[in-house]
Structure formats: C-alpha cells, structure tokens
Amino acid sequence: MESIPSPVVAVKINEWYKHIKKFNVKDAEMLREEIRKEIDVMEEDEQAVLYFQLMEFRHQLMLDYVQPSEEPLEKSDYLKAVEGQGKKMAGFLEYYFNFFQGMYEFKTGEFIKAIVFYKRAEKRLEQVADAFEKAEFYYKLSEVFYHMKQTHVSMYYVGLAYDVYRSNSNFVVREINCLTVVAGNYIDLEHREKALSQLLVVLEKAKTLKNQHMIFRALHNIGSCYEGLGDNIRAISHFHQAIEIGSSIGEKVLLTYYRMAMIHLKNKEFIEGQNFYRKSLEQAEIHHDELYFILLEFMKKLFFDSANLSDILNVLEKLNNMKGYRYMEDLALEGAQFYTKSGRMDESVKLYEKVMYARKQIQRGDCSYEF
C-alpha cells in the first residue's frame, strides 16, 4: 500500500482536535479511528507521530469530562512516552505538550503544577494562529486561577475566552463553561445575585442543548447559589431537581445530597438531615470518595456528636494540604457559625482563625510559579 503524506494526516488531526474542543464525541471517535489506521501507513515523520500521540491524550481528557470515570485519570502510555524520551519537539508541539500536561495536572487536583505547565505553554502561544485555540487556553487558565482563588486573574482570562466563544454558535458548551467560571468568581467576590443571573443563563443554554449532564450541574450550582443567599426553599427545590436528573443519568449526586444534609442540619431539621447524611455516606462508599468521608466526618462531629473543638480541629487537619484548603475554609466557616449561634464564642474564634489560615495558604499557592 502506498504511504500517506504526513501533512494529509496532520490536517486530519487538526479536524479531530476541532471536534474534541466542541465535545463532538461521535465525530471525534470516527476521526480517531481513521487516523489510527493512516498513521500505520504514513510516511515517516516523527513530529506528526508526536502530534497524534498528544491528541490521543487530549481525546482521553474529553471523554473523561463528558462521562467521568470512577477511576482516577492516569497519564496514558503515549503521553508518558512523549514526556520520557525527551524528543525535540517543534514549537507548536511543545505548546500542546505543556498545555495538555497542565490539563492533566488540573484534573488530578495539582493546581500549582497545572499553572507551571500552562505558563510554559503560554511561552509558545504565538505558535498558535487559531483564535478558538487561544480561547481554549485562556479558558483553562481562568479555570485553574478560579480554583486558586486568584479571582480577578481568573475573570480576566475567562473574559478573553468568552468573547471568542460567543461569536460562534458551535461553542455553546464552552460558553456554558465560561459563564460557570464567571459565576464561581462572583460567589468568591460575595456577589451571589450576579452569580445567580449567570447560572440561570447557563441552565437555559444547557436545556437548548438537551445536555442532561450540564442541566444537572446547572441545577446543583443554582441550588448552591440560593443556599448562599439564604433562600433555602428555592435551594432545596433545585437540589431535588438535580438529584432526580442526576440519578437518572448515572451522575455522581454525592455533593447534592451533602448540601441537602447541611441545609436541614443547620435548620435543626435532624430527621431530614440524617436522611440525607446517610444517602451522602452511601454515595461516598459507592464511589470510594476519601474527600467526602472527611467532609461527612466533620458533619457528624459537628451536628450528631458533642461538637468538641479538638475533634473538629482533628478533622480539619486532614485537609491541611493544597488540595484540601478550599474545603478546610468552607468547613471551618460552617463550624464557626455553628459555635457562634450556640454562644460558644471561644470555639468560634478558633475556627475563624482556621478560615483565615486556609485562605492564606490558598493565596500563597501562587508563589510556586516558574519564571
């Protein structure tokens, strides 16, 4: 069989990547199978093979986003091979390697490592001519800076991405992603009304796509927003809708059960709170979710046991790491408010100190960047 010119294959890889970015799973799968066959008979071209290997990994990241796996995402063998052989990559391939590596680190919760790889990719961003590819990069930066609570930096990058995505009706999924990050940043800035308006737009866009997974997430986020606004009736209504949809499509509804338990327990509705606590615990056991075992242990110590300060602090100590500080902040704040309402001001002060400690650790995380 006559060999296929490598530029022909490279063009197909470009098309494959376009489908990946749009979450067109069916089209992406079909092109991947075509390209796999053509790679075997392609003329020798090391750079084209590297490009293919990198895109295989990016495809895997897309599939894991569309249908999250119970198993943690592992570096694929082909990415390890690209990384380990230390091959000289062309500028645009060096960009993709660092960009995709950053996406992997973000997925595994290694936010500082993700930023390091993204910053390396940014040095090669001029190699990328496509505006939508640059928007993809800006969105990913906004996402990781949001998780690091670098709120204004996140807002800057998500604005750059959103301006590009909304100009093309093929990128509605990414519009939704951007608006969700905007809403999260508004919540961190204590502007929940603005966050709610963004999330309501997200829900309508998800409904137009008939994307049940996105509808589930939007309903959960709207419920959380109403909870933060103190409107528990609307919060519970949206959480119930999220549970109904999420359960029907196999989504992980653990977090929604957990929020429902927290609302009822804070309102001293212990029968309902215990019911949702048990459901949360069952979900944590099904999914082997170590993080939620910690969160549920905190809930048990605070609401079902004696709320002993030393027990509470021992649980919070399990979150004393970069992945856990966001949760430490939230739980310590819940505990401080609980002690304040109970008139236990000394304990309340101790937990407010934990809140400030966690926030400081989150903010200090950005000191680990490479230059």
Describe it for me?
This protein has helices at residues 6-21, 25-40, 46-66, 77-84, 91-107, 111-122, 131-147, 151-165, 172-188, 192-209, 212-228, 232-248, 254-266, 270-287, 290-304, 309-317, 325-341, 345-364. With 371 residues, it is mostly helical. The chain has a domain at 1-129: Serine Threonine Protein Phosphatase 5, Tetratricopeptide repeat. Helix 6 (111-122) packs antiparallel against helix 7 (131-147), helix 8 (151-165) packs antiparallel against helix 9 (172-188) and helix 15 packs antiparallel against helix 16. It is elongated. The mean pLDDT is 88.
Please render the helix and strand layout as text:
Layout: H1 6-21, H2 25-40, H3 46-66, H4 77-84, H5 91-107, H6 111-122, H7 131-147, H8 151-165, H9 172-188, H10 192-209, H11 212-228, H12 232-248, H13 254-266, H14 270-287, H15 290-304, H16 309-317, H17 325-341, H18 345-364
Key words describing this protein structure:
371 residues, Serine Threonine Protein Phosphatase 5, Tetratricopeptide repeat
Concise synopsis of the structure shown:
By secondary structure, this protein is mostly helical. The protein has helices at residues 6-21, 25-40, 46-66, 77-84, 91-107, 111-122, 131-147, 151-165, 172-188, 192-209, 212-228, 232-248, 254-266, 270-287, 290-304, 309-317, 325-341, 345-364.
